[in-house]
Design a protein that fits this description.
The protein is α+β, with helices and mostly antiparallel strands and about 120 residues long. It has a single domain, classed as Nucleotide cyclase, GGDEF domain (Alpha-Beta Plaits). About 15% of the residues lie in helices and about 30% in strands. It has a four-stranded mixed beta sheet. The longest helix is centred in the middle third of the chain and has 12 residues. It is globular, with a radius of gyration of 15 Å.
């Protein structure tokens, strides 16, 4: 999608958010249910536009198998999930700059979402 959007104006881009968590699901007609689905949906809500958030289980399973980096967003309390979950933002390729003290994930005071705060010292 990033390559496809290179020549498209910002207001015309479609930017997905993705949340990934393994777990059992129940398929009923054309719907899916279960904790895995619920947690993945909550992780999706934490991801930046165009971004991916994963649970610790996913990070541990793929971290040495894929050429991606993971930024630790800490323990997150997710709606309708009993216990906090360790969440990681996925960085793929060069689309997201390397982290530095001024460019690391943080929860901005005006938003419930995590973002890369370039203004922090």
């Amino acid at each position: 999608m990033a390559e496809r959007h290179a020549d498209i104006a910002l207001e015309r881009r479609i930017e997905f958010r993705i949340g990934i968590h393994p777990g059992d699901i129940i398929v009923e007609d054309s719907d899916i249910f279960g904790d895995g689905v619920n947690i993945a949906a909550r992780l999706e809500g934490l991801a930046e536009p165009g971004g991916i958030c994963v649970s610790r289980v996913v990070r541990d399973e793929v971290r040495d198998k894929l050429d991606v980096a993971f930024d630790d967003l800490g323990e997150q309390s997710l709606k309708n999930i009993a216990r906090p979950l360790r969440v990681f933002a996925v960085r793929v390729g060069e689309a997201v700059p390397p982290l530095s003290p001024k460019n690391r994930p943080c929860r901005c005071p005006t938003s419930r979402r995590w973002r890369y705060c370039r203004s922090r010292t």
